[in-house]
């Protein structure tokens, strides 16, 4: 899954005439599944690592995981950032990795420049043609 998500993110950014390198990317949800605080085996870690290695500036938000813990595989030093309209507009892309119920996906789509949706969380939102890419 992570490799496909990265490919779709690159494709989506290219369609918006942007490069992944230097882009600001917000990952929504790093928990393994919604409504839990367990990030073990989460694809979010791999996605964030791959994005960073390709030169993107990566932030994350997860209401269940306020601080990323060091693991044997990953050594992120990140805190969950707040989702505000300003933060969403500042990001070149937002990747939905975990579809927590706390997220207002309609508002996230409204305020964001580009969405890569891995959970089909935005499938019923109208008026976002060319803005949402599914992965």
Structure description:
With 135 residues, the protein is of the alpha/beta class. The protein has one domain (2-134): NAD(P)-binding Rossmann-like Domain (Rossmann fold, 3-Layer(aba) Sandwich). The chain is built from 4 helices and 5 strands, in the order H-E-H-E-H-E-H-E-E. The protein has helices spanning 2-15, 43-53, 85-90, 105-111; strands spanning 24-28, 57-61, 93-96, 115-117, 132-134. The chain has a 5-stranded parallel beta sheet, covered by helices on one side. Helix 1 packs across helix 2 (43-53). The mean pLDDT is 95.
Note the main attributes of this structure.
single chain, 135 residues, alpha/beta, Rossmann fold, five-stranded parallel beta sheet, globular
Write the layout of secondary structure elements.
Layout lengths: L1 H14 L8 E5 L14 H11 L3 E5 L23 H6 L2 E4 L8 H7 L3 E3 L14 E3 L1
Parallel strand pairs: 1-2, 1-3, 3-4, 4-5
Helix pairs in contact: 1-2
Describe this structure in a few short sentences.
This protein has helices at residues 2-15, 43-53, 85-90, 105-111; strands at 24-28, 57-61, 93-96, 115-117, 132-134.
Number of helices: 4
From the 3D coordinates, which CATH architecture would you assign? 3-Layer(aba) Sandwich
Helix-strand sequence = HEHEHEHEE
Taking all Cα atoms into account, the compactness measure Rg is: 14 Å
* Unreliable spans: none
> Shape from CA axes?
globular
The oligomeric status of these chains comes to single chain
Report the span from N to C terminus.
8 Å
What fraction of the residues are assigned to beta strands by DSSP? 5-15%
The amount of helix comes to 25-40%
Number of domains: 1
Sheet/helix structural class: alpha/beta
Q: For the record, what is the CATH homologous superfamily label?
A: NAD(P)-binding Rossmann-like Domain
**CATH domain class:** Alpha Beta
Biggest β-sheet, characterized?
A: 5 strands, parallel
In which order are the strands of the major sheet placed?
A: 2-1-3-4-5
Q: In total, how many beta strands?
A: 5
Mean of the pLDDT scores? Answer: 95
How is the CATH topology named? Rossmann fold
